[in-house]
Amino acid sequence: MLRVIVIGGSGATGKELLKELIASPKVASITSLGRRNVDDLQSEKLNQVIVDFEKLDDYKESFKGQEAAFCCLGTTKKQAGTAEKFRHIELDYSSAFSRLAKEANIEQMHLLTSQGANPNSWFLYMKTKGEIEEAMKRDTFKNLYIYRPGFLNRGATDRFGEKALSYLMSGIPVNTVARSMVKLFERQNEQTPSGVNVLYNKEIYKESK
After folding, report:
1. What is the CATH number of the domain that holds 87?
2. For 121-148, how does the pLDDT look when each residue is reduced to its tens digit (9 = 90+)?
3. How many CB atoms lie within 10 A of CB 40?
4. Of 45, 93, 129, 147, which one is the catalytic site residue?
5. Which of 51, 94, 130, 194 has the CA that lies 20 to 30 A from 72?
6. What is the pTM for the complete model shown?
7. How many domains does the chain have?
8. Phi and psi at residue 200, in whole multiples of 5°?
9. Which stretch of DSSP H or E encloses residue 144?
10. 178, 4 contact by CB (below 8 A)
């Protein structure tokens, strides 16, 4: 039975990920780090830990004994307030999570970023997502899975701007992304090749089956 740790579980994809992990017969325990509890999810498997992300090192005990880490952390410039705060939340928090996972000898990392992620991009969002990817590559996990979906279809919770964007980008439901993350995790074994694997919509759909 497997143990996992999750960051970003209160977001749309993160919440679906927690549901999939709870439903998995191969997962024994889930540690979810967040600024608030996900109140509508209840399970004996799920341990929700309220954390101060500015002091994530204070929670390094939570990383011990985990087989895999999942990073679904995400915000927007509007929610963060400024470009600097956006980068701090996205890049610094995700990088700290990755570092602590590596220090705890977690071999498998699953990272949700975005189609178009590129550390050299002129666009703040794509540049930051690309920098997160590079930070996690430097931590040299045995297996790093990077999910680069197009527009994330949240269903009824989509905001107006997101609905407009969906006509320009190839969309994918958040539960499909979450399911693919868990399915890939479940399929891991000693024969799985090491390295970095990047999945776009086509691969995400395939792995979700």
Report:
1. 3.40.50.720
2. 999 999 999 999 999 999 999 999 999 9
3. 7
4. 129
5. 194
6. 0.93
7. 1
8. -100, -175
9. strand 143-147
10. no
